[in-house]
Write a structure and sequence with these properties.
2 domains; about 150 residues; two-stranded antiparallel ribbon; mainly alpha
Length: about 150
């Protein structure tokens, strides 16, 4: 779940919660394992939980480019599904057929995109820039080796 610089620097609203002792212990342990503060971890869990309540077919996964929204039961990022929809002329049915996934999952990605367009567009831009850099690197390697 990539946040923009403006979102990261936005003022925070202080809240106070009481957690069961075991939950607090698990939170502290997970924050240490993840190298994050407990506050950052709680904020992520709350945000992702709220999004999942609205979009139950979307889950979140860590990857080399950060945490991203994905379609449940697949390794497909929402941004990948949206790109595939665009490449199929906006057709949900053709995208589902191409990806070999149920139409409901493709529709779920489209609904998520409608709510978080800017975030998914940033993911797409970063992924395309990465792919271009990797292709340029591969071409340079081929020139050196060939």
């Amino acid at each position: 779940m990539a946040m923009s610089a403006a979102e990261r620097s936005a003022p925070k609203t202080p809240l106070s919660f009481r957690l069961r002792g075991e939950t607090a212990r698990l939170l502290e342990q997970r924050a240490q394992e993840a190298g994050e503060t407990q506050t950052a971890l709680v904020e992520r869990y709350v945000e992702e939980g709220l999004r999942t309540d609205t979009h139950p077919l979307v889950t979140f996964r860590d990857g080399t480019a950060g945490r991203r929204p994905c379609i449940v039961g697949t390794s497909l990022g929402v941004w990948q599904v949206i790109e595939t929809i665009r490449q199929n002329g906006g057709s949900i049915a053709e995208t589902a057929d191409y990806l070999g996934k149920p139409v409901e999952l493709i529709e779920a990605a489209a609904r998520y995109y409608a709510d978080f367009t800017d975030e998914i567009d940033r993911w797409t831009e970063r992924a395309n820039a990465f792919a271009q850099r990797e292709e340029a690197n591969w071409r340079r390697q081929q020139q050196l080796l060939g």
